[in-house]
Backbone:
């Protein structure tokens, strides 16, 4: 096994463990409070508290990730999260809800600070294998995020919610210790130190914001992701009402549809390792931008098809197709985004991406809660499909982002021919 392969396998273990821990934690912590108090309001408070640190601290986390050693940050914050999660059942039993809310806030804060450091380290660490790695990672992480809630519920049911929270902490510990074994995890630390070490945090934040605003690919991708992530709850949650109220099925139908979609996502992510790569000699080559167009327009077409009021079997087919469009958008979008960012800016830009993702999800849920009672499930879903199409057209077909990506792809193809 080559050194690069060992690094990729080690990094996969760490990141899949971390994703599984997060998905288990997201279910187990509200279950713990609900089991102890019988009050759903307490569980809701926990979920709100966990969402706050991303919005408050992510920009500062990105500045720190650009200024200090990313391996030290990743390992330290994950170790801190693991320790708190493992100790949280005992602390909750001793001090009740206030202590648990503090733990939830701190665990989310530590995750907020470790995430940009981990994301920013990957492109340089993996080099030319970045897209292949992101495809494998995307597939396995989506699988972990799908299985996590089931594992959390099973552990909580057969043991206690407290043990489920402790299990999440153990997985965080595994992730931290695994990253600690990777030599040269932060390959550009010395280079960045010479560039930004003397800059204070305020200056780093201003530079990061200006860089993000003036980089057409970064700005365009963040706008696309904001619109498309907001469209996800708009197009998925109303399906629950459509399947149960309109078609008369029980909740199992929605669970099956979600599982079918997840299967498509896992498969398509794995298959996206080489999409848009190479010169495509002897056949028509679809560029990364082309695949992004196919995925985004495919999302929209699937959701607009809901206007035909399909039966359950057709919904399952449509959701599998939707999942198959997910992989190229997720994997190639991350590659385009990473290629557009200068190394000394990665931490800050990835932290802004975290804020955009969080805000987009919140906006999407708020819109869904208002739109479904006002316009009905099907009309809400089709409106979300139109949003997918609008976001895709103005990002990857028209406008400055599309032109910048075309120029970047032309430069990459020229370099590839020269290298050959």
Residues:
């Amino acid at each position: 096994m080559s050194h690069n392969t060992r690094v990729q396998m080690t990094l996969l273990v760490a990141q899949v463990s971390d994703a599984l821990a997060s998905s288990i934690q997201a279910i187990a912590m509200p279950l713990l409070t609900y089991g102890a108090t019988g009050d759903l309001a307490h569980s809701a408070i926990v979920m709100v508290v966990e969402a706050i640190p991303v919005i408050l601290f992510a920009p500062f986390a990105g500045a720190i990730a650009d200024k200090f050693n990313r391996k030290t940050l990743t390992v330290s914050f994950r170790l801190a999260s693991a320790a708190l999660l493992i100790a949280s059942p005992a602390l909750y039993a001793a001090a009740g809800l206030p202590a648990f809310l503090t733990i939830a806030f701190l665990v989310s804060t530590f995750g907020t600070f470790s995430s940009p450091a981990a994301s920013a380290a990957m492109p340089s660490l993996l080099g030319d294998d970045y897209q292949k790695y992101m495809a494998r990672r995307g597939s396995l992480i989506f699988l972990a995020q799908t299985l996590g809630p089931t594992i959390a519920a099973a552990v909580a049911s057969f043991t206690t919610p407290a043990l489920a929270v402790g299990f999440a902490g153990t997985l965080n510990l595994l992730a931290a210790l695994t990253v600690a074994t990777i030599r040269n995890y932060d390959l550009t630390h010395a280079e960045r130190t010479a560039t930004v070490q003397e800059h204070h945090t305020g200056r780093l934040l201003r530079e990061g914001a200006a860089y993000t605003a003036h980089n057409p690919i970064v700005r365009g991708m963040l706008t696309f992701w904001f619109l498309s992530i907001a469209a996800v709850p708009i197009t998925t949650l109303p399906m629950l009402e459509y399947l149960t109220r309109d078609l008369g099925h029980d909740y199992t139908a929605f669970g099956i549809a979600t599982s079918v979609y997840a299967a498509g996502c896992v498969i398509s992510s794995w298959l996206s390792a080489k999409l848009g790569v190479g010169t495509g000699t002897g056949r028509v080559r679809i560029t990364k931008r082309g695949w992004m167009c196919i995925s985004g327009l495919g999302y929209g077409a699937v959701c607009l098809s809901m206007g035909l009021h399909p039966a359950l079997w057709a919904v399952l087919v449509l959701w599998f197709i939707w999942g198959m469009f997910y992989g190229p958008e997720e994997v190639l979008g991350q590659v385009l985004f990473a290629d557009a960012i200068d190394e000394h800016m990665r931490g800050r830009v990835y932290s802004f991406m975290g804020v955009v993702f969080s805000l987009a999800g919140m906006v999407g849920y708020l819109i869904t809660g208002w739109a479904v009672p006002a316009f009905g499930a099907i009309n809400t879903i089709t409106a979300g499909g139109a949003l997918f199409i609008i976001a895709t057209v103005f990002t990857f077909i028209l406008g400055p982002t599309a032109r910048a990506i075309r120029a970047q792809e032309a430069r990459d193809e020229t370099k590839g021919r020269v290298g050959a």
